[in-house]
Design a protein that fits this description.
By secondary structure, the chain is mainly α. 88% of the residues lie in helices and 3% in strands. The chain has one domain. The radius of gyration is 66 Å and the shape is rod-shaped. It starts with a strand and ends with a helix.
Amino acid sequence: MDLLPLGHGGFGINTNIFETNIINLAAVVGIVVSFVGNNLTALLEDRKKTILSNLEEANQRAIEAQEKLNKAKAGLDLAKKKAQEIREEGIARATSEINTVVSEHELRLAKLNDFKTETVSFYQQKAFKEAYLYVVSRIMTRVRERLTRGLDSTYHVVVNNFYVSRFTEYSVKK
């Protein structure tokens, strides 16, 4: 029961429970709204600040993650470029090495061919010289045999001069 002012300037007791409860409820709601409202507003404001701070941190982390991603992509592109350069350099070196080996091989083949030609020429000259010496030796042996069989001195001189001149002509040509 609440005390309410009466119309004559005094206080009286209000016996209407329904009105009294409404008035009490209005007073309690007013007090709750004023105290809890301020606290709730402060709480909501703190929560808002926390959420905004978290959003800013998340945004900053997203920016940092994007920067790291961009750096990683740049690193990957650089690595791919370097790998391509290494691959191209390897191909160039291999090609150069192949060309060098082929050139050296061709040079060795040319030297072997020259050596073969010189060797064949040497043995041809040797065989020709041996054949020449054999033929000359046989001719000289036959000439001696004819001369020892009884040629007269005039014929002997003529035959010797003939063969000596032939031998000299042949020797001079070679």
